[in-house]
Amino acid sequence: LAGALHQGLIVDVRYNGGGSVSQLLIEKLARRRLGYDISRWGQPDPYPADSLLGPVVAITNEGASSDGDIFSHVFKLLGLGPLIGKRTWGGVIGISPIDRLADGGTTTQPEFSFWFPDVGWGVENYGTEPTIEVEIAPQDYVARRDPQLDRAISETLRLMAENPPQLPEFGPRPRLGLPALPEV
């Protein structure tokens, strides 16, 4: 996770139409830094690897569906940081186009859905509300402005100012001499 080296991270899942990566992303983003592996001549490496130093903020919108819905909901459910933007699309029932028709077309049917401990089946047909709602107006698109990203940046900077991400003071490294030889 390249963002682990930075003091803050913004994850943008707007228009994420699905797939199967939310588990990997959430697992990486949920890692909490517990210690450091410090080699003799190198920089401190966080433990666990790729754990984040500073705050994380996510941006979502009505174009986030399926795995985009799932990521947004779990990010919020775990309290990983502010979720900024608009309510997600609300489509977490999965389909697989496996049935071929005589004319070469295919049919799909619902095969699986998602249940969460806080809302049950409630993400389907509703989506996930952001913690901070930010609209992008048509004039913003025309002017190439992105108020959702702007808000994510300001939230990240605010969180960094409230709790500045910094490496701990490690102090001098222990130096152990040779053990004393037994008296003869």
Q: Outline of this structure?
A:
The chain is α/β, with parallel strands linked by helices. It has four helices and ten strands.
Strand and helix map with partners:
Blueprint: E1 9-12, H1 22-29, E2 35-38, E3 44-47, E4 56-60, H2 67-77, E5 83-85, E6 94-95, E7 99-100, E8 106-107, E9 110-112, E10 132-133, H3 138-142, H4 147-162
Parallel strand pairs: 1-4, 4-5, 5-10
Antiparallel strand pairs: 2-3, 6-9, 7-8
Helix pairs in contact: 1-2
Q: How would you describe what is shown here?
A:
By secondary structure, the chain is an alpha/beta fold. The chain has a single domain, classed as Alpha-Beta Complex (2-enoyl-CoA Hydratase, Chain A, domain 1). It is 22% helix and 17% strand. The protein has four helices and ten strands. It has a four-stranded parallel beta sheet with strand order 1-4-5-10, sandwiched between helices. It has a two-stranded antiparallel sheet with strand order 2-3. Helix 1 runs parallel beside helix 2. The longest helix has 16 residues, at 147-162. The model has no long low-confidence stretch (mean pLDDT 92).
Mean pLDDT: 92
Q: How many β strands by DSSP?
A: 10
How many domains, as an integer? 1
N-to-C CA distance: 56 Å
| Second-tier CATH architecture | Alpha-Beta Complex
State the order of secondary-structure elements, H for helix, E for strand. Answer: EHEEEHEEEEEEHH
Parts with pLDDT < 50 across at least 5 consecutive residues: none
Beta content comes to 15-25%
- From the alpha-carbon coordinates, what is the Rg to the nearest angstrom? 23 Å
**Number of DSSP helices?**
4
